[in-house]
Structures are given as C-alpha cells and as structure tokens.
Amino acid sequence: MEQKDYLLREIEKIGLIMRAIRQKIFGGKDNTAITLDSQIEAAKGMLLNETDFDLDIFLALNKKESDKYICSFEGFSVENIELLAECISQIGFNDNSNNSGKYLEKALQLYELCILKSKTYSLERETNVIKIKNAL
User: Fold this and answer.
1) Four-point Cα dihedral 122, 124, 126, 128, nearest 10
2) Calpha distance 93→90 (Å, rounded)
3) What total of structural domains would you count in the chain?
4) End-to-end CA distance of the chain
5) Which of 97 and 101 is assigned the larger pLDDT?
6) How many C-alpha atoms does 85 have within 13 Å on its Cβ side?
C-alpha cells in the first residue's frame, strides 16, 4: 500500500511541475521582458531539479532511447507524458531558431508513446499530432 501511495504522489508531483512549467513559459503576459530562451532554460532547470529529468539529454536521444528514458521515471503517467509533449511542442512552435524542429519531433515521439500506452482515444491528442506533423 505504501508503494502505491508513493507512486501516486510522484505522478501528482510531476503533473504539478509540468503544469507550473507550462504556466511559466506560456502563461500570462506579465513577463514580457523575459525571452523565450530564458524561460526554456528555467523550465529545464525546474525539470532537472524537481524530477531529475534532463531535457537536453532527452532531446539528444533517438526514439528507442527516448522511450526508455521517459519510462525510467516512475511519475510519468500517460497524462504527464502528454503534458510534457504539450510543453515541448509549444516550445517548438514558439521557437524561431533551428531547434524548433527538434522540439517538435520529440513532442511527436511523446504523443506516439501516449497513443501506445493509453487505453483511451483522445481527439485532442490526435489534433496535436496532426498540427506537429503539418509543421514538420
């Protein structure tokens, strides 16, 4: 029973972190002086400090290694993987540098992993996949 409670807390913790990162990067317009690059770096720092998830390492991995890396974290449920995919895809859509394609490809990989792991169909997930494929 304690193990199940621990896993639920980890899943909730990662979900909260992902929502906070998403809000920090794409939330209100209060921080107009802060550039997207600094917001991305802050998000990477939050992920690394709170969950030991290194976004730079994740972006450098191939598809098989990426799936293995993301699945090595206990708190990454399908919902949390989908939140991470949303964050990464939003970074890709808003980033005007050469890295935008890399972010979009990783987001697409995460959505595909969600499709494989999830037992339910999500129209929103499919819509996001189509948007990313059209952008690539």
Assistant:
1) -150
2) 5
3) 1
4) 45
5) 101
6) 29
Q: What are phi and psi of 91, to 5 degrees?
A: -60, -45
Cβ atoms of residues 115 and 130 within 8 Å? no
The CA angle 103-64-113, to the nearest 5 degrees, is 65
Mention every residue, 6+ apart, whose C-beta is less than 8 A from residue 39.
24, 25, 31
Rounded-to-integer distance, Cα 60 and Cα 105, Å: 11
Q: Provide the whole-model pTM.
A: 0.75
Compute the distance between CA of residue 85 and CA of residue 111 in angstroms, rounded to an integer: 6
What type of residue is 125?
A: R
In three-state secondary structure terms, 88 is: helix
Report the length, in residues, of the chain. 136
Provide the percentage of residues in the chain whose pLDDT is more than 70: 88
Q: Which residue segment(s) compose the domain that 81 sits in?
A: 2-135
Q: Helix (H, G, I), strand (E, B), or coil: what is residue 65?
A: helix
Q: Is 78 helix (H, G, I), strand (E, B) or coil?
A: helix
Amino acid at 8: L
* Mean pLDDT within 62-89: 88
Helices and strands of the chain, counted as H and E runs? 7, 0
